[in-house]
Amino acid sequence: MDMPHLDDVRARGRTSAAVRVRRWQSKSWHVAQCAIAAGLAWFVASDLLGHDTPFFAPIAAVAALGTSYGQRLRRVGEVAIGVAIGVLIGDLLVTQIGTGWWQLTIIVALAMSTAILLDGGQLFVTQAAVQAIVVTTLAPTTSGAFTRWTDALIGGSLALLAAAIVPAAPLRRPREQAAVVIRKIAGLLRVAADVMESGEVEPAMALLADARATDYLIRELQAAADEGLAVVASSPFRLRHRPGMRRMAELVDPLDKSLRTTRVLVRRTAVAAYHRRPVPASYVVVCRELADAADVLAEEFRADPSTEGPSAARAALMAVGQHTSELQRSHALSIEVVLAMLRGLVADLLELTGLSPLEATDALPAPRRDWLDDDLRHD
């Protein structure tokens, strides 16, 4: 095995390990919450109520909470009721027909049918079946049916209480991820400006590949926004954050549009480099100014979640928009598209400061028209 290949394997291993550690860090609150809820469920059922080995209480608590915020209250309700139904049906039928393979078949069928007839979701139906199996095979006693049923309700109730207690991190994450997307746009713009200035094809192709590999950023932003909405919907302690979280969720589409516009700008910059079309120096300056304005916008998103709109970034973007209207027009189609994308990106980013699409477009002064008497030369 040659050393470059070994180095690649090691690099991929380090990256994979880092990804796993970040994933664990992002789920550490869920892990702690499930662990504490399980312990408390056992304590309440065993120590306070005197139930003998109440293992259904922690099972219901952990199964209900899970490791995500999405539809948590619904999941808690489905699991708690599903577990309770499975335990109840299993206990009642075991006392009547005993245990065995055919008894298990009947009990599982009845538990799942009951859950379906109650209009339960997939999690509801699955938990009813699983807990009926546990009762029939692992705890087939003729006494304590009500106790096991109440154990399941205890676990579900504690899960419901725990679900209302959420950290502030999911509320910050959408803004932090939005800042990541905007900083990526700023980085692409700076490299694009370098390519415009140098006209080198190889860096242009590398830039194009980098821009095309950015879809995951929007997916992560959407996931963060969904998680934040789920948190404010499920926790009564986070009601005051609902308007701000909804505003953040509404910015996912404008951010996606901004990133797409950036990719088109990068592609036209690469085309200009490939065809040896020199880009005017003034375009390079404006592209770098736009990158600086994007950085200001990213910092405002990251640092101050209380503002209605990033005011400093809006002023910087308005200044860049004014500069785009003063740029010398070009006869080359690639250069004209670069200008159009610069102006379009300014408008897209202005939407992120709180302007409507029409307001953002109207905020840009009209471009120069001194070339319109000439024929436009296509690439």
UniProtKB/TrEMBL annotation:
Major site of localization recorded for this protein: membrane
Taxonomy, superkingdom: Bacteria
Spans traversing the lipid bilayer: 28-45, 51-69, 76-94
Alphabetized Pfam families for the sequence: FUSC_2
Keywords attached to this entry: Membrane, Transmembrane, Transmembrane helix
Stretches assigned to the Integral membrane bound transporter domain: 41-161
Compartments reported by the entry: Membrane
Membrane topology of the entry: Multi-pass membrane protein
InterPro entries assigned: Memb_transporter_dom
UniProt entry tagged with the keyword Transmembrane: yes
A GO cellular component annotation in the UniProt record: membrane
Protein name per UniProt: Integral membrane bound transporter domain-containing protein
Protein source organism: Nocardioides cavernaquae
Lineage start: Bacteria, Bacillati, Actinomycetota, Actinomycetes, Propionibacteriales
